[in-house]
Amino acid sequence: MSLDRQERIILEALQQDATLPVAEIAVRANLSTPSCWRRIRQLREAGYIRRQVALLDAGKVNLGVMVISSVTLRDKSVAGQTKFEQFAMERDEVLECMLLSGGRDYQLKVIVPTIKAYGHFLTSVLLDLPIVESAESNFVLRETKQTTALPLGLADRG
């Protein structure tokens, strides 16, 4: 399924505010409300819309320390990668886990309430894993841009 103009408008609207009424999205996409609803359903069924969530303010929920941790594995085999990825999936502190090319194997985006909590996670959890050789931590001082919206216009330039 390739996206037409109206479907891109629908997806852009939902990325900005998933609580928008279908009628409002339909107006933006120049569609009838039932047609817009059908397209949204089709986009979900086709996997374009994976899920809809609420984005929270980390500071207001006492999660004020964000760390980017670059991890090198001892065991770089598929089995080692699978073990590490399973570990990342199970840890609440890990918001994102990405397999990288280059000098490090993985990059984790970790969030915790305090530096002390990160110290515990690093020394008693992450570095305690037999498959982890090392980890380099970079504390986020300020987020100047944070978005979950994909730039759909770039797909046309591909």
Largest sheet: 4 strands, antiparallel
Distance between the termini: 17 Å
Biggest sheet, spatial arrangement of strands: 2-3-1-4
SSE ordering = HHHEHEEHEH
| Helix residue percentage | 25-40%
Low-confidence stretches: none
Number of helices: 6
- What oligomeric arrangement do these chains adopt? single chain
Taking Cα atoms only, what radius of gyration do you get, to the nearest Å?
Answer: 20 Å
Mean pLDDT: 95
- Name the beta content range: 15-25%
- What's the shape? elongated
| Beta strands, count | 4
The SS-based structural class is: alpha+beta
Structural description of this entry:
The chain is 39% helix and 19% strand. It has helices spanning 5-16, 22-29, 33-45, 78-90, 115-126, 152-155, and strands at 65-73, 94-99, 106-112, 132-139. The protein has a four-stranded antiparallel sheet with strand order 2-3-1-4. Strand 2 and strand 3 form a beta hairpin. The protein is elongated and about 55 Å long.
In short:
The protein has helices at 5-16, 22-29, 33-45, 78-90, 115-126, 152-155; strands at 65-73, 94-99, 106-112, 132-139. The chain has 158 residues and is an alpha+beta fold.
Keywords:
6 helices, four-stranded antiparallel β-sheet, elongated, about 160 residues
List strands and helices in order, with pairings.
Layout: H1 5-16, H2 22-29, H3 33-45, E1 65-73, H4 78-90, E2 94-99, E3 106-112, H5 115-126, E4 132-139, H6 152-155
Antiparallel strand pairs: 1-3, 1-4, 2-3
Helix pairs in contact: 1-2, 2-3
